[in-house]
Each structure stands twice: as C-alpha cells, then as structure tokens.
Amino acid sequence: MTRGDTGPDFIEALARGLDVIRVFRPGRPVMSLTEVAAAAGLARPTARRILLTLQELGYARTEQGGFALTPRVLELGVSYIRSMGLWEVARPHLERLVTQTHESCSIAQLDGSDIVYVARVAVPKIVALSVQIGTRFPALQTSLGKVLLAALSPAEVDRVLAEPSRSGIEPRWQPDAKEREAVLRAVRAKGWAMTDEQLALGIRSVAAPLRDGLGNVIAAVNVNAHAAETSIEKLTEEHLPLLLKTASAISADWALYEAVPHVTAS
C-alpha cells in the first residue's frame, strides 16, 4: 500500500503485517494468497511469509484453500478499549439504557473522517447496516459523528473531513459546507444530534457526547432505531431524555475513574 514520507524509525515489516490484516473485510472472510498480495500491494512471497507468521501466532488460519483471520485478531482492538477503561465504566449504563428503550445503544470515537464503534449493547433486529466493535461509518451522516464533529473548531472539522473515509460506505446525505456548518452549529447549541436515514435507509438515531472531568468530549453514545418502527417523535421525546441522562452518568463515572490513581501490582 502507498505510504507518505516515513521517519528513520519506521518498521516496514510491521506496517506490511498490519496491511495484510486490514485487507480482510466484511464479505471477504477468506482470501487466496494472490488476492491478499494484490489487495495489500505486496509481492506474493512477502504476503505468504506474513500470512504464515500470522498463522503461527494464531491470528490467521488456512481455510477453503485460502487464508482467514481468527478471532484472536479481536485482541488487538480490545486491548485499546480495555486500556481506556471506557467499556468497564459504560457497560452497566448502556445495558440499562437498552433495557429502557429496547433499542441498540453504542459508543463511538472519531478516527479521521469516520466514526469507529468501541462499545455496543445490541438487541436482535434486522437493520440495513451491520454494526459491531470496530465498524466504521462516515462521521457526518451519523448522530454519533455529528456530536464528535461539533466538538471541534470549524477549521478542525474542515481538516478532518478532508480525509477520505475508510468505511466503504456511500452515504445518502451529501451536504455542502454551508449546510454542514449549520447542522453542526445546531448540534453545539442543543447538546445532542439526530440522524434520519442520512447514512442509509431505515437508520434513525440520536446521540449525545461523553465528557471527561475537564469537559472535553471523549466519545459519543447513541440510541439506534429502525425508521419503520420508531418515529422521530418517539426517538426525541422518549428515548432522548433517557440517553441524555445516561450520557451524563457515564461522563460522571468516567471523571471519577480518571481521578482515581490506577496502579498495577507486579
């Protein structure tokens, strides 16, 4: 894969290994050596050595004449979530919110022009887009993303959204700069955001910010509903007050968590 300028300490072999892991996407769980090499922009011998190394470490396996990742790859992402402690703090609140709303609830953070889901409690429903930990969507067309973008300055928003999305999703709503700024200005004023089928048909949600003890937005939490089942009125009049209460409780607990010294015994 093409890279920009790298420093003298850049480890190309590690970067290539991560490139290989990233080429496995939804709908492509098993790939041949040739497919992996082409997708990662590597020579076949290099891709083969990387895949065999991943296999020996337990991150990949041979399957149906090709290669597939193993669940152990999840450890790489879960390590990030656990290192933050956010999941442990948020989980009981998310579970309570799901019980109250009977809808799926998630937490996401900004990564370039995308949001990435870092915590989720789901209910079994058929939705247009599958969501799991690590899923990414274009930020601007999601309620979670609007909240996170609204926490940035206009210059930062321009810089972030100039980066191409890595989600592979083509959203329905494509606002110009003037409309985008008006929407984010409204989110800043209200303190919450809504999206109504702007990402994809059938997806409607509200989101609120999660803050640290200094008031900085560290993530966003949402209630996600199917547009055919949940009206905008129900989403904003019934679910939104519960969401805002939950966001406040998570933020308060996170501030307490940050304030407590964390020491690991050796």
TrEMBL record:
Signal peptide: none annotated. Residues 11-71 form the HTH iclR-type domain. Keywords: DNA-binding. Pfam families: HTH_IclR, IclR_C. Residues 72-256 form the IclR-ED domain. InterPro entries: HTH_MetabolicPath_Reg, Tscrpt_reg_IclR_C, Tscrpt_reg_IclR_N. PROSITE patterns: HTH_ICLR (PS51077), ICLR_ED (PS51078). It comes from the Bacteria. PANTHER family: HELIX-TURN-HELIX TRANSCRIPTIONAL REGULATOR, ICLR FAMILY, TRANSCRIPTIONAL REGULATOR. This is IclR family transcriptional regulator C-terminal domain-containing protein. It comes from Nonomuraea guangzhouensis.
